[in-house]
Design goal:
This protein is of the alpha/beta class. The protein has two domains: 8-53 and 71-205, Rossmann fold (3-Layer(aba) Sandwich), CATH 3.40.50.300; 228-290, Beta-grasp domain (Ubiquitin-like (UB roll)). The protein contains eleven helices and twelve strands. The strands form two sheets. It has a six-stranded mixed β-sheet with strand order 2-4-1-5-6-7, with helices on both faces. It binds guanosine-5'-triphosphate and magnesium ion.
Amino acid sequence: MYSYLMSFSVGIIGLPNVGKSTFFKALTKKQVDIASYPFTTIDPNVGVVSVPDEALKKISEIIKPEKTTPTIIEFLDIAGLVKGAHKGEGLGNQFLAQIRECDAIIHVVRAFGENTDPEDDIKTIKTELELKDMEAKEKENLLSKKPVIYLLNIDDQGQYQKPNIEHLAINIKEEAEMSELSEKEVQELEMKSKLDRIILACYDILDLITFYTIVKLKEVRAWTVKKGSLAPTAGGKVHSDFQEKFIKAEVISSEKLIEAESLAKAREKGLLKTVGKDYIIKNKEVVEFKI
Ligand SMILES: Nc1nc2c(ncn2[C@@H]2O[C@H](COP(=O)(O)OP(=O)(O)OP(=O)(O)O)[C@@H](O)[C@H]2O)c(=O)[nH]1
Ligand SMILES: [Mg+2]
């Protein structure tokens, strides 16, 4: 339902009023130009965010294409869940169904203001997901088994009650303020956004890697594929023919390409490797599919 762009999606969940929508708004200030992607009907609750990528920038600098297209992740702003959500409290069932559509979860936890108990809040939501899962007939796609990042929304003092669980901490209000500023203004104020780090953390828990394709002079484009994918599967992300009619591919690491300064020079130096259908695509590799 939400995979309009055939990208991976992350649902932002948590108790009411913890800062989910504020976080979503800050993130989607980075919304990409969705015209570059197919199936671009976008729900107001779905934000499409480009994945920060230094290698892509550098490849573009040497290839100088007309267009550089980053890879994307979708974020979904889901309304607050309350205790009893699994029984339908507070429209719980509707929201839980939205979570089911997501590949991973960011669980926002309030750690700003008075009387916060992050660990208890985490437990409340976790329990709702687990209770909902107990009703599920199919044991695939279970809510409580989805990869999750606990994101503590902290105040500007940076003091908070640390839960006994791995988490990231950010000041969402400050991130929202920063997202209204230009890059230059953020630098001048010596502020530093953590949004990129969080986007990359999502990419990590989703077990994704990036590969690149180059259409000479026209486009350098980043694509997402699950870690461990074979070359034809990666090809299928670009075009179904590249999967079905796959014969071989030429690959080079982005580092080597950047060092060689052009594809032609890399080819001259014999840096491009020809691989077959059993080849596992590596992170940050430039790939040319041959059919
Ligand atoms: N002090 C402080 N207030 C915040 C912070 N983040 C959000 N708020 C405030 O908390 C209120 C709720 O923020 P939202 O982002 O709408 O919360 P939400 O989690 O989307 O809420 P629901 O969708 O209703 O569940 C707003 O008044 C925000 O201004 C924060 O980091 N610090
Ligand atoms: Mg909200």
